[in-house]
TrEMBL record:
Catalytic activity: a 1-acyl-sn-glycerol + an acyl-CoA = a 1,3-diacyl-sn-glycerol + CoA; a 1-acylglycerol + an acyl-CoA = a 1,3-diacylglycerol + CoA; a 2-acylglycerol + an acyl-CoA = a 2,3-diacyl-sn-glycerol + CoA; a 2-acylglycerol + an acyl-CoA = a 1,2-diacyl-sn-glycerol + CoA
Main location: endoplasmic reticulum
E.C. number: 2.3.1.-
Localization: Endoplasmic reticulum membrane
One Pfam family here: DAGAT
Topology within the bilayer: Multi-pass membrane protein
A GO biological-process term: triglyceride biosynthetic process
Family classification: Belongs to the diacylglycerol acyltransferase family.
Species the sequence originates in: Erinaceus europaeus (Western European hedgehog)
Record CDD domains: LPLAT_MGAT-like
GO CC, any one term: endoplasmic reticulum membrane
Pathway: Lipid metabolism; Glycerolipid metabolism; triacylglycerol biosynthesis
GO molecular function annotations of the record: 2-acylglycerol O-acyltransferase activity; diacylglycerol O-acyltransferase activity
Record protein name field: Acyltransferase
Amino acid sequence: MKVEFAPLNIPLARRLQTAAVLQWVLSYLLLAQACVGIIAVLIIHNYWFLYVPYLTWLYFDWRTPEQGGRRSNWVRSWTVWRYFKDYFPIHLIKTWDLDPCHNYIFGFHPHGVLVAGAFGNFCTDYSAFKELFPGFTAYLHVLPCWFRCPLLREYLMSTGPVSVSKKSVSHVLSKEGGGNISVIVLGGAEESLDAHPGKFTLFLRQRKGFVKIAMKHGASLVPVFSFGENELFKQVNNPEGSWLRRVQEKFQKVMGFALPLFHARGIFQYNFGIMPYRKPIHTVVGRPIPVLQTPHPTPEQIEELHQTYLEELRNLFEEHKGKYGIAEHETLIFK
């Protein structure tokens, strides 16, 4: 196979975009290990004046990811995130006006490999979110395991994410005055194992907890589809029932997160590497589904609203797929 190298005369802006995305990918892959290593070094060398105060503070701060987090406008406005957004590029599209006096749940689809669209749109100040949804604050809910790693949790919270636990979602949706959005990647880690280019498989059939919590708080449901999310990486072939898929699923059950074996392009060549492809991401926010507050919803009520949500999500996909190069015969597959 002939290696296709990147030309030497690439503009500086594009090189900076590549660097921005590279640090983001490496943070996902290596930052947790690095943070644990730092704490271990401090303990081994008995720098107690550093690790004792931090671990003491960590004990009292443990629940912060379930209580709205601790975002930093300074971190969210780092220039690196502008270059990150422009690499793909990432676009946010609004199709319906939302009432800032109400709270909402954005169901984000698909998960993709690294959820680049959700991060770029809701965890940085360089998307069009503030202009399109004035008066709103978005909280991207991620797996609780990410907040159990010392030091990493501080960096992660600074960009806005919070835990995806029930307590955390309830905390956001119970805020008085409205204007709060819980962004939940509903397919979860399991869906990332099916994030192959050209596939539109969503793990939603058995995921109804978001419907129940929406009804308890009277929060409107909004389907969101991120076109291009599954096009950023390729994965080692892992069909259901294969030995690789079984290993990945077992790992996910034990560790709480999936381990897709992804690859795309390199830094200085286009054939192989961990850098995502430069594919545009169009995150389309659909029409809100009004939800009547029901403190104790019945299974029948939950099922009815869940079916309504699936229908609205499919309608959103069908209405916009042609704009983003998806063939007419392609449709969503719910598992």
